[in-house]
Structure formats: structure tokens, C-alpha cells
Amino acid sequence: LSICSRTVEPLEYYRRFLKENCRPDGRELGEFRTTTVNIGKCLCSITTADGSALVKLGNTTVICGVKAELAAPAADSANKGYIVPNVELPSLCAERFRSGPPGEEAQAASQFIADVIENSQMIVKEDLCIASSKLAWVLYCDIICLDYDGNLLDASVFALLAALKNVQLPSVTINEETGLSEVNLKQKNPLIIRKHPVATSFAVFDDTLLIVDPTAEEEDLATGTVTIVTDEEGRLCSVHKPGGSPLTGAKLQDCISRAITRHKEVKKLIDKVIKSITPK
Fold first, then answer.
1. What's the angle, vertex CA 67, arms to CA 64 and CA 73, rounded to 5?
2. Distance between CA 29 and CA 24 in Å, rounded?
3. Are the beta carbons of 238 and 119 closer than 8 angstroms?
4. What is the pLDDT of residues 36-65, one digit of tens each?
5. Is residue 163 situated within a structural domain?
6. In the chain, what are the helix, strand and coil shares in percent, each to the nearest 5?
7. pTM to 2 decimals?
8. Cβ pair 147, 61 in contact under 8 A
9. Residue 44 lies in a domain
10. How many distinct structural domains can be found in the chain?
């Protein structure tokens, strides 16, 4: 299989591998790339964040920093805080992205993350309220892609979850006499994370063949993609399918089963890293 055919006829080149149930990078169709996660202060670049994580999925590298600030709740949701996710795809992460305001892909990814937070109930906004109508936490979750090689959504959800698990918020009370907030930086508490959503993405080749954790090249050649988000109870939190080939019920069920298995792998990885950085 020459390099020439990969450049001139990339789809035919891929099909020759897929017929043998493997991919040009040596993976099987249902195999994920090597996945690693670093959590917290090991990321010297964002020590200003209240929680941070770096996730690598093959060559795709994503960093997430969570910054917590205090604000008054909105009038129509007096007992809720805010979660503000933002995904950035800077020009340095891949040639396809340009400097300037967020492009379509970054905006779609930000909306996807917002939907995952809402649908999974990973953080309940009422838990971020300190005093109804007076004070609540705002969590700014900045997800920045440092190196893009496909499957941005899986890496982003993983980085977000890992960073949120790392957040420690200071104790805040409202002084009854002055009405002012008092922050105790010596007493910190972890965020209440109620669910642990994990995303699993697939590319669809020739309308029928599913491959897991696609690279950027595989995404470009695919006839569609689908991302399944599940929680630790195997509950379906979200199905994200931006156009492309339709999937049969059986194929979708296949994706969900694989996503539930992947969830266990990712959760085990996060738990292991958190255990290693938790003071004995």
C-alpha cells in the first residue's frame, strides 16, 4: 500500500485496510488510541485555575482549566449558579483553523459540552448557590485544543470531567450584619459531581462500517460521525449526530454498548490518577 495511493486516493487506500478489519495506524476498528490524563498542579501552565486537566487521545491534546468566581444569581433562577463552557480551536492546533473569532466547529463543540453538562446533570446548578438571590458560584470552563488529530469531543468531555474533579472551592458565607460575603481560603471543599459523563465517538464509513475514536483524516473521509455520551449507570445522556449517513437501530445500539464499555475504561483511568495525586 504505497504512500502515493494514500495521497491521490485516500478513501480507496483506507478501504483496503478496512476490508482487513484494521486501520492504517495499526488499530482494529473498535480500538481507541492511547489515552492519558494529567490532573491538577502538574500543569504548571495554568496554576491560576481552580481545577485543571490535560488529556491526550493519540495525538489529539486538550487542556481544560476551570475558574470559579462569585456572582449574583439570575433573577429567574435565584437558587442556581452558572456553568460557562467554552471550547477554543486556536490556529496553532491544526492548519484547518484560523486565528480570530471562534469558528463553526469551536462553537458547535462549546454547545455540545453545554448540552452534556445539562443533560447528564454532572453538576446540578442548585449546588453552586451559596445564598438564594444573593450569591452563587460561576464556573468558567475553558477547553483549549493544543493539538488536533480528530475526536475533539471525547477528549473535551474527558478533560472537563477530570478538571472539575480537581476543583476545590473555598468556604463562603454571608455576614448577617454587613450582608457582605466572607471567603475562607483555608477551608476548601471539592465540587459535588453527581454524574460522570463520558463521550464515545464513531466515524461511519460507506454508510455502514463503524470505527471508533477517528483521527482527523478518518473524520474527513467518513460519511458521518456520531458521539454517544453515557454515565456510570449506563444511562444515555446524549446522542450527537451532525448529519451524514443515517444509522440503523441495531448500529446505534452497537455504539451505545461500546460506549458503556468505554465509560468503565475512562472512569478507571480518572480514578487511578486522582488516587495518585490525593495526599495520603
1. 130
2. 10
3. yes
4. 999 886 554 566 788 999 999 999 999 999
5. yes
6. 35, 30, 35
7. 0.92
8. yes
9. yes
10. 1
